């Protein structure tokens, strides 16, 4: 059995070829797709966060709206860039959204990826201290965020408050019990995966990883997952961690699928460079008739190792088609893989 959800980047463009032509379209269609995915029996609705781009950005209004419209499906991010975040304000937003969703929030966070502008976090008022990097700043924001999510009091109360206070130091409100255990770290290296394990976060491993060995992407990814689980065990955590991977997977079951994706799947990993120097390896896409797709997916070691699979969706093709993409995997592929 495997948790299967979708991951949307929420792209929009004012083009006649797009069914998502504005930010409003992207947001409202994201809500509608989450509702449709829940009705189809999917397990999760996840959204990517990018700043200064025609994509989904501020996640918490969207997560709260999805939480109010759905009943069972997990609602998450993959990922929020912690370089841009005030961790205390974020904890209040996250607690509010999680309470609206009755404890279904699964927040993926990370150091972030290359953005649309240079050092965009500086426009948000954040800069690394002297001698630190933006990655150090993201991890520091994360540590503060995780700490306040525990719900412990830390702020000295006013002796003459406007409203009566409970005794002792005050915590942030609203506090959502259990949210601390539903935070995930998007790791692109083995070292950050091990750091996430020590911090007690679940692991999100995406379709991109820093190339640390020259091995195929899914092999490097499964090695990362196993190092993460070893570090989790060594840290002495008492619960079982969760691990997700993301893939672009399309089952060709009708003429629309063949028109969009029937030119053949990308059978090889790709290599690119982040920041001009860091060699990164990108996982392949899958597009084939269901029987062939099942055989291809059986060879992906990282999918087999993870408990959660996030299907990246082409959101600009509209809600109906993306619901069809999800349904095709659940109906025609998941049973053959033993996921359902």
From TrEMBL:
InterPro entries associated with the record: Bact_Lucif_Oxidored, Luciferase-like_dom, Luciferase-like_sf
Domain of life: Bacteria
UniProt entry keywords in alphabetical sequence: Monooxygenase, Oxidoreductase
Gene Ontology MF, one: monooxygenase activity
Pfam families in UniProt: Bac_luciferase
Cleaved signal peptide residues: none
Coiled coil: none
Glycoprotein found in the keyword field: no
The name this protein goes by in its record: Alkane 1-monooxygenase
Record-annotated Luciferase-like domain positions: 9-257
Organism: Tardiphaga robiniae
Alphabetized SUPFAM superfamilies for the sequence: Bacterial luciferase-like
GO cellular component labels: cytosol
